[in-house]
Amino acid sequence: MPAGLSRLDVLESEAVHLIREVVAERDRPALLFSGGKDSAVLLKLAEKAFAPAPIPFPVLHVDTGHNFEEVLDFRDRRAAELGVRLVVASVQESIDAGRTTEPEGLTSRNRLQTASLLEAIAEHRFDALFGGARRDEERARAKERMLSFRDTFGQWDPRNQRPELWNLYNGLIHPGENVRAFPLSNWTERDVWTYIDHEDVELPSLYFAHNRKVFERDGMLLADNPFLLRGADEQLVERSVRFRTVGDMTCTGAVESTAATVSEVIAEIAATRISERGQTRADDRTSAAAMEDRKREGYF
Fold this sequence. Notes:
Layout: H1 7-25, E1 29-32, H2 37-50, E2 59-63, H3 69-82, E3 86-90, H4 91-96, H5 113-124, E4 128-130, H6 139-142, E5 147-150, E6 178-181, H7 189-199, E7 210-217, E8 220-223, E9 237-242, E10 253-256, H8 262-270, H9 276-280, H10 282-285, H11 290-297
Parallel strand pairs: 1-2, 1-4, 2-3, 4-6
Antiparallel strand pairs: 5-6, 7-8, 7-9, 8-10, 9-10
Helix pairs in contact: 1-2, 7-8
Enzyme class: transferase
Keywords: ATP-binding, Nucleotide-binding, Nucleotidyltransferase, Transferase
Domain Phosphoadenosine phosphosulphate reductase: 29-253
């Protein structure tokens, strides 16, 4: 680590460098912005990368139609405050148009996001997407490079990746290919929250302790919502909870918590040994290969 620089300084510098490199090499980048904590930090880094100029690319959200209203409100407001164009790729619109099919009995639409994402890339001719994925989240994401290449079908081959020596990035692609850039690759969940504290990054209220009606399923506390049918033994209870990650309501669990401030969340994270996806994402807990399968098909 360079003398005089903290770990957070180094991580920020690395992320800003990657963002600038991709913008310099690609023609039509966009930033994946769901309104979650990682994408909120990514948006802050993009602000810093080009300040005092505005962010020179749009933000893209793949909306399952089952998202938390608080997160969607935050997404829309932040995009408006920054004056960036918000592109929403709707899974519901893809289903209605017959471009993708929702299997009977399916609850989580996370896997259906792939088709909507690839449609948005084709429609807007995006050749690079910034994502907030981190290597500490789960095993498939740990296989990613900072620049991850997708072929003309949007698919990822983890065995065919370019070397990244001394932070030298090769963003050249063939027509029809796409680059996924992950500036937060080397960050941990605690790093993200420490940066949120240091930079006063605003987040949706769901990340902090609040009273909410939840029910337990497979060891997870799921929020009461109109997209999930509860069984007779799945009784609603009101608990003080917060969300470590925010996504599709049907598969995103809460954790019991009294952490109402950033510093309290950081202290809570320091005591856990389970990643947020491993603890609170039902679709990632069902199969060790679930995320890698989705990524090979073109997922984030």
